[in-house]
Amino acid sequence: MVLIKPPEACATAEVYKRLRLDQTSKADPLALLKEITQNGISQDVCVNDLEPPAFEVLRSLKKLKKRFIASNRGDYSAVFMSGSGSTIVGIGSPDPPAFVYDDDDYKDVFVSEARFLTREENEWYREPMSSNATFSKEDSLSEAAPVVD
């Protein structure tokens, strides 16, 4: 998974002001979740009703998403905007598309590889001692990683 965030901010209040509820997706969220669970993430199930208004607020976001989708360097099953913007997420290859390095329009974007953190039910995160370490509610508090202020 790759995250690309342009340096320009996308004001959440402005995005919500432009949101038109009559133009939001009619897809059933539970049906989308079932599709993801059964078949994985695809472009068809990545619905974000805040994309159109965010693309009005920050027009360069729409161009960035289109370039990301058209990219031939990475292999992405889905490309979508996170929340109200302005991060664009590519699910698939950990390699960013070449244009973010080759095109001066994107020289100031933040690019990061990312991955999903998964856990079992009733399992809580702690800094792993090894790649398989986890912490559940049943573990004693003395075993938890210390909290540092």
Automatic annotation (TrEMBL):
The keyword Nucleotide-binding applies. Residues 33-101 form the GHMP kinase C-terminal domain. Residues 127-149 are annotated as: Disordered. This is GHMP kinase C-terminal domain-containing protein. One of its GO terms (molecular function) is 4-(cytidine 5'-diphospho)-2-C-methyl-D-erythritol kinase activity. It comes from Aegilops tauschii subsp. strangulata. Keywords: Nucleotide-binding. GO terms for cellular component: chloroplast.
